[in-house]
Write a structure and sequence with these properties.
The protein has two domains: about 100 residues, Virus Head Decoration Protein, Chain: A; about 90 residues, no CATH class. It is mostly beta strands and about 210 residues long. A hairpin with a 5-residue loop joins strand 8 and strand 9. Helices cover about 5% and strands about 45% of the residues. The relative contact order is 0.28. The protein is elongated. The protein is built from one helix and 17 strands. Strands 4, 5, 7, 8, 9 and 12 form a six-stranded antiparallel β-sheet that branches. Strands 2-15-14-3-13 form a five-stranded antiparallel β-sheet. The chain has a three-stranded mixed β-sheet with strand order 1-16-17. The longest helix is centred in the last third of the chain and has 12 residues.
Length: about 210
């Protein structure tokens, strides 16, 4: 006798969602094949780090060298702010786009944090509050299975695959639950090997988008 295995149906993991398609998004998916209900994350696209721009009204005329960023640096405006001016030197703070402190450094010494650069001393010393802005951006990314061990953006769970899809040979268009919904935890599909704590962390991340696990 032939054994037939029934796969998960599209949207079967949903308990409730907003009217129409308000809870759903569409976009490219890579990897697979994945079943409906697979918890996904978004891989970051190609990174661009713009040249540093001096704050208007800087007293000092030191300049920034070339700036690079780590692979998953937060997108947005990074700030380098002088906090302790010293003749021919000084200390600065580096603030991430969300306002949190990335680290501290010194003028003329290489800084190696979320962004990497050397701020050179100029003929006129920096004053407290002088600084620079560095903008980090990414090209549009693609969804793939959530992997907390990754370092490409997919380590953060942000959507759930609405219907089975296979992007293993080439990226495919797919539909995702992206917000304002309730989902059945027992119907979700995870990357093999995830621990209970890792799944709980992912569910907490989904909750920040209004995707509530029951």
């Amino acid at each position: 006798m032939t054994t037939l295995t029934e796969t998960l149906k599209a949207g079967a993991y949903l308990i409730s969602e907003a009217n129409g398609t308000l809870s759903r998004d569409q976009g490219p998916l890579t990897g697979g094949p994945y079943d409906a209900g697979t918890v996904l994350g978004k891989k970051l696209g190609a990174q661009t780090v713009a040249a540093a721009v001096a704050f208007a009204g800087n007293a000092g005329n030191g300049v920034m060298g070339a700036v690079t960023a780590v692979a998953n640096a937060l997108a947005g405006d990074w700030k380098i702010v002088i906090v302790a001016p010293v003749t021919n030197a000084g200390a600065f703070e580096v603030l991430r786009p969300d306002g949190t402190l990335d680290g501290t450094g010194k003028v003329a010494v290489a800084y190696n944090g979320g962004i990497k650069f050397t701020l050179a001393d100029g003929g006129t010393d920096f004053a407290a509050g002088d600084g620079f802005t560095v903008h980090v951006s990414y090209a549009a990314g693609v969804r793939t299975i959530h992997d907390p061990a990754a370092n490409d953006g997919s380590e953060k769970a942000d959507t759930i695959l609405f219907e089975a899809a296979d992007g293993s040979a080439a990226d495919v268009a797919a539909t995702f639950t992206a917000r304002n919904s309730e989902v059945n935890t027992s119907e979700l599909v995870w990357k093999s090997g995830l621990t209970a704590d890792q799944k709980a962390a992912a569910l907490a991340q989904l909750a920040t988008f209004g995707i509530i696990a029951r």
